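Aim 2, interim progress: modelling of the tryptophan-bound target.
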Amino acid sequence: MSENRDNQKVVLTCAQPTGKLHLGNYLGAVQNWVKMCDGHECYYGVVDMHAITIPYVPADLRKNVYECAAQYMACGLDPDKCNLFLQSSVAGHAELAWILGCICPIGQLERMTQYKDKARKHADAINSGLLYYPVLMAADILIYNADLVPVGEDQKQHLEITRDLAQKFNNTYSPTFTLPEPFIPKSGARIMSLQSPESKMSKSDPNQNGTLYITDKPDVLSKKIMSAVTDSEGSVRRSPDKPGVSNLINIMAALAERSPESVEKEFDGRGYGDFKKAVAEVVIEKLSPVRERYEAIIPDKTLIESALKRGSEAAQRRASRTMAKVYRKVGFMKFE
Ligand code: TRP
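Predicted structure of the complex, ligand included:
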């Protein structure tokens, strides 16, 4: 995609190349990124530099980047309509992070919730990169002067620090960065685990039967849905004390793009077995094309690489313009 479509807002978001996408990612995030490609200039990054802030295996990282890009493409992110880039292939992210780090109070980083969580989880491997993570993320966003950043609730604090840093840079030097707005999709159904429906569907759920992956085969999807936790009441309706059934209703409604009420009406008086079968049918119908596209893309490394290369080159052009300004403003010398 070409950059510089002047009147369009710039959208940027990034994802870590970790593992498989599940239905919650698909409905809550990726579908929305696909929609935003129309009418916006979009930059979507695979952030491999963020991925090395916790212990990892280099060969796995490379494989995960291919899989991550292939999954996004399979979900409908068209490299002709957005710039799908690889963070480590665009010079400037780390340079800008360094400069922003020099105006970022260390206390603010130490107070970040995600840092505290991860530091607790990886207590034996708390490196400076983990602390610095939000500064690199701020650089990811500011280097493109993004207007809108689609993120989940859990990333709100990172957006706040990004805005703080942009403002501080603008005040310290001169107006340079756009203050980005988080774009958190209005309500929408929160997709919960099928096995413990009081928590979000997650790839780190200890019970993997609770998580529907976009690359799961139909028989696997069907088995997971048929064994979803419900309750003993036996009626298909949403209620806080029926989290399992409510979740299945929401999944069906979101995928079939209909209201939860119409699902409740359709299955009024019918049993859970019937209902689950119908849910499985919709899930399979919607996810099968995605899985099939994924299976076609993943063996084609050249296709994936050329998409990422093209996106990274476009991203580089925009990033370089910002960095030229930033270097001048902070007083770095430029040799002719
Ligand atoms: N921290 C984000 C996450 O874990 C990933 C990310 C890195 C990001 N850089 C970003 C998201 C820039 C939006 C914009 O989900």
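The pocket of tryptophan is lined by residues 12-16, 47, 50, 137, 140-141, 149, 151, 155, 158 (CB under 6 Å). DSSP finds 13 helices and five strands in the chain.
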